[in-house]
Amino acid sequence: MHNALAVSAGIRLRPFESADIPNMRLYLNEDLIYNNTLHIPNPYTQADAEQWIEKTVQNAVLYGQTVNWAIDYEGTGLIGGIGAMVKNGMEGHLDEIGYWLAEPFRNQGIATAAVRTLSKHIFATRPLVRIEAHVFAHNPASGRVLEKAGYSREGFLRKCFLKKGQYIDAVLYALIREE
Ligand SMILES: CC(C)(COP(=O)(O)OP(=O)(O)OC[C@H]1O[C@@H](n2cnc3c(N)ncnc32)[C@H](O)[C@@H]1OP(=O)(O)O)[C@@H](O)C(=O)NCCC(=O)NCCS
User: Fold this and answer.
1) Residues with Cβ within 8 Å of residue 150, at least 6 apart in sequence
2) pTM value?
């Protein structure tokens, strides 16, 4: 099992651990993260962080490899998260990724490098031919991340998600193994 994936100078992906909880609580309590994601709670509590870490441990056992990664910055610890959702099992041809990066570290290319690293890793370790990502239409920065990481914009999905009683338009991006 891979325990760490190098991303760029000082940045690596590694499994979540209990010591990440203070940074998770610090960085995940942000309106922008809440508004641009589907499942991250707000406010983000100690119990939310504990449950998430437990789930990542269970997922690693269930799937036989790490699928949820902490983005780690040397000296700071956790600054974000990225992972595969395992939509069709580990042997499926298709999966979806999701990610977030803490506000102080944005616009330095870190999320793009993390998406590149994870995409390469899951193509290398699983029989995937397609990785996709859904981005809320009001989140152009995330669309830009995917484009820079080689993903293609495939379509505009009207009222694709329902969150707190509101339907949200999304943009679909995908990366094909040969690309
Ligand atoms: C989306 C997110 C992961 C980007 O992380 P990041 O490390 O800043 O991304 P990068 O630095 O690799 O690239 C960001 C790109 O978006 C661009 N960008 C930033 N804000 C933008 C905006 N409001 N409109 C358009 N582009 C924007 C940047 O200029 C950069 O592109 P460039 O290199 O061509 O200049 C981060 O903002 C985040 O965590 N947001 C909240 C959670 C989230 O949206 N998760 C994704 C859900 S699909």
Assistant:
1) 116, 119, 175, 179
2) 0.98
From the CA of 32, give the closest atom in ligand 1.
Answer: 41
Cα angle 93, 95, 101 (rounded to 5 degrees) comes to 155
Domains of the chain: 5-176 (3.40.630.30)
Contact between 96 and 85 under an 8 Å Cβ cutoff? The reply is: yes
The residues facing 8 across adjacent strands are 11
129 lines ligand 1 (CB under 6 A): no
Residue 145 Cβ inside 6 Å of ligand 1? The answer reads: yes
Q: What is the model's pLDDT at position 2? A: 73
59 pocket-lining for ligand 1 (C-beta < 6 Å): no
One-letter amino acid at 152 equals S
Is the CB of 117 within 6 Å of ligand 1?
no
Q: Tell me what the mean pLDDT of segment 73-86 comes to.
A: 98
